[in-house]
Model the fold of this input.
Amino acid sequence: MATSERRKGDRVVFERGIPAHMMGIDGTWRRECTMEDISETGAKLTVDGSVEGLHLKEFFLLLSSTGLAYRRCELSWVNGDQIGVNFLKTGDKRKKSVKRPHSADA
Done:
Protein backbone atom coordinates (compact mmCIF):
# COMPACT_ATOMS: atom_id res chain seq x y z
CA MET A 1 0.00 0.00 0.00
CA ALA A 2 1.39 3.39 -0.96
CA THR A 3 1.45 5.59 2.13
CA SER A 4 3.21 8.44 0.32
CA GLU A 5 -0.08 9.35 -1.37
CA ARG A 6 -1.63 10.39 1.97
CA ARG A 7 0.41 13.64 2.00
CA LYS A 8 -0.90 14.74 -1.40
CA GLY A 9 -4.24 16.01 -0.07
CA ASP A 10 -5.50 19.25 -1.58
CA ARG A 11 -4.57 22.10 0.77
CA VAL A 12 -6.89 25.03 1.47
CA VAL A 13 -5.01 28.21 2.46
CA PHE A 14 -6.89 30.84 4.49
CA GLU A 15 -6.09 34.48 3.66
CA ARG A 16 -6.34 35.68 7.27
CA GLY A 17 -6.25 32.38 9.12
CA ILE A 18 -9.01 30.80 11.17
CA PRO A 19 -8.97 31.26 14.98
CA ALA A 20 -8.80 27.93 16.80
CA HIS A 21 -7.57 26.35 20.04
CA MET A 22 -5.25 23.47 20.84
CA MET A 23 -5.97 21.40 23.94
CA GLY A 24 -4.14 18.54 25.61
CA ILE A 25 -5.80 15.12 25.42
CA ASP A 26 -6.02 15.13 29.23
CA GLY A 27 -7.29 18.73 29.34
CA THR A 28 -4.32 20.03 31.36
CA TRP A 29 -3.34 22.72 28.82
CA ARG A 30 -4.90 24.92 26.16
CA ARG A 31 -3.44 27.40 23.66
CA GLU A 32 -4.96 29.80 21.17
CA CYS A 33 -3.77 29.30 17.61
CA THR A 34 -4.53 30.31 14.04
CA MET A 35 -5.14 27.68 11.38
CA GLU A 36 -3.20 28.89 8.32
CA ASP A 37 -4.11 26.03 6.01
CA ILE A 38 -5.76 22.63 6.11
CA SER A 39 -5.95 19.45 4.07
CA GLU A 40 -7.67 16.14 4.52
CA THR A 41 -4.67 14.79 6.43
CA GLY A 42 -3.37 17.78 8.41
CA ALA A 43 -2.98 21.50 9.00
CA LYS A 44 -0.48 24.30 9.57
CA LEU A 45 -1.01 26.29 12.77
CA THR A 46 0.50 29.48 14.17
CA VAL A 47 0.56 29.09 17.95
CA ASP A 48 0.04 32.01 20.37
CA GLY A 49 2.75 31.74 23.00
CA SER A 50 5.38 29.07 23.55
CA VAL A 51 4.85 25.41 22.70
CA GLU A 52 7.71 24.48 25.01
CA GLY A 53 6.72 21.90 27.60
CA LEU A 54 3.39 21.04 25.95
CA HIS A 55 2.60 17.39 25.26
CA LEU A 56 2.22 17.73 21.49
CA LYS A 57 2.61 14.06 20.61
CA GLU A 58 -1.18 13.88 20.61
CA PHE A 59 -3.71 16.67 21.25
CA PHE A 60 -7.04 18.11 20.15
CA LEU A 61 -7.48 20.97 17.66
CA LEU A 62 -10.72 22.73 18.62
CA LEU A 63 -12.34 24.42 15.64
CA SER A 64 -15.39 25.87 17.38
CA SER A 65 -15.80 27.87 20.59
CA THR A 66 -18.21 25.23 21.92
CA GLY A 67 -15.68 22.44 21.32
CA LEU A 68 -18.12 20.46 19.17
CA ALA A 69 -15.91 20.58 16.07
CA TYR A 70 -12.48 19.13 16.75
CA ARG A 71 -9.78 16.88 15.32
CA ARG A 72 -7.35 14.64 17.15
CA CYS A 73 -3.81 15.57 16.05
CA GLU A 74 -0.18 14.62 16.33
CA LEU A 75 2.77 16.95 15.87
CA SER A 76 4.52 16.66 12.51
CA TRP A 77 7.00 19.60 12.53
CA VAL A 78 7.89 22.84 14.33
CA ASN A 79 9.27 26.03 12.73
CA GLY A 80 9.32 28.95 15.16
CA ASP A 81 5.74 29.71 16.20
CA GLN A 82 4.31 27.54 13.40
CA ILE A 83 3.65 23.82 13.67
CA GLY A 84 2.45 21.19 11.25
CA VAL A 85 -0.02 18.59 12.51
CA ASN A 86 -1.31 15.30 11.14
CA PHE A 87 -4.92 14.38 11.81
CA LEU A 88 -5.44 11.05 13.53
CA LYS A 89 -8.42 9.03 12.41
CA THR A 90 -10.31 6.85 14.86
CA GLY A 91 -10.26 4.03 12.31
CA ASP A 92 -6.44 3.96 12.06
CA LYS A 93 -6.21 1.17 14.63
CA ARG A 94 -8.56 -1.13 12.74
CA LYS A 95 -5.84 -3.69 12.00
CA LYS A 96 -5.84 -4.86 15.60
CA SER A 97 -9.60 -5.24 15.99
CA VAL A 98 -10.83 -8.77 15.48
CA LYS A 99 -14.51 -9.59 15.37
CA ARG A 100 -15.27 -11.97 18.17
CA PRO A 101 -18.56 -13.74 18.67
CA HIS A 102 -20.55 -12.55 21.67
CA SER A 103 -20.49 -15.38 24.17
CA ALA A 104 -21.28 -15.61 27.84
CA ASP A 105 -18.35 -17.11 29.74
CA ALA A 106 -20.21 -17.31 33.05
Observations:
- The chain has one domain: 11-89.
